[in-house]
Amino acid sequence: MLARTRPFTPSGTQLLxxxxxxxxxxxxxxxxxxxxxxxxxxxxxxxxxxxxxxVATCIDYYPRLxxxxxxxxxxxxxxx
Length: 80
Hints:
Helix content: 25-40%
Radius of gyration: 13 Å
Shape: globular
C-alpha cells in the first residue's frame, strides 16, 4: 500500500514509477489498482497522468468521509 500525505512531488512520481517498475518485472502481476477519494482531484489527475484509468465508483468506501465514495483506478501492466 502506498500513501502520501503531502501534495504530489517528484519524489511521489519516483515512488510510483519504481513501484510499478517492480510490478512489471513480475509476469504474474497483470495490473495495478488503487482507490482515491472522489474529492481528491489532485490525486485523480496525478494517477491519470501516469496512465491509470477510472473503472468504477465504490459506494461507502470511506465511511468516515463525506462523501464516502472512492474512484477505483486501474493500470494494465502488460500488453494483452
